[in-house]
Fold this sequence. Notes:
Blueprint (H helix, E strand, L loop, with lengths): L1 E4 L5 H13 L8 H10 L8 E6 L2 E14 L4 E12 L8 H15 L4 E5 L2 H4 L5 E2 L5 E2 L8 E5 L10 E3 L3
Parallel strand pairs: 4-5, 7-9
Antiparallel strand pairs: 1-2, 2-3, 3-4, 3-9, 5-8, 6-8
Helix pairs in contact: 1-2
Amino acid sequence: MIIRQEEPKDFAEIYDLVKVAFQTAKVADGNEQDFVNQLRASDNYIPELALVAEENGKLVGHIMLTKNYITASSSKVEALLLAPLCVALEYRNRGIGSKLVEHSFELAKKLGYRAVFVVGDPAYYSRFGFKRSVLFGIRALNIPDEYVMVHELVAGALVDVTGTVTVM
């Protein structure tokens, strides 16, 4: 298996991969594949942080980290949003999702990013060091606090940062 940056030739296959993968996900709204396209078309898209896992020429996993912001009363702090992460059903429980997360974090740190947010299953994402963002004084509007988590890529990155995080 290799992990590499997504390419325009992959976009249709990624769309299908995300759609099918989320049909069997614990939590899904059915629009994740369209969300990928929205993120890709936005100013928040970072091509270097949109990755695929490929095995024998087939895309089996996908992850995107895009820019997002913590808005305080008088400032905006740039961070990243992990959304979505998916692995094809027949390739799950083989560590592919973990490898995508870990590889994307390494690249994000090299690019100078300091924190990553995710809206997802706490039982899954806590293994990567994600903690509830409310512990840092950061909330997302209209999303239950237990599902909004953050991982500091750089220790202490969120000291003295409070406010509201956007999740697109």
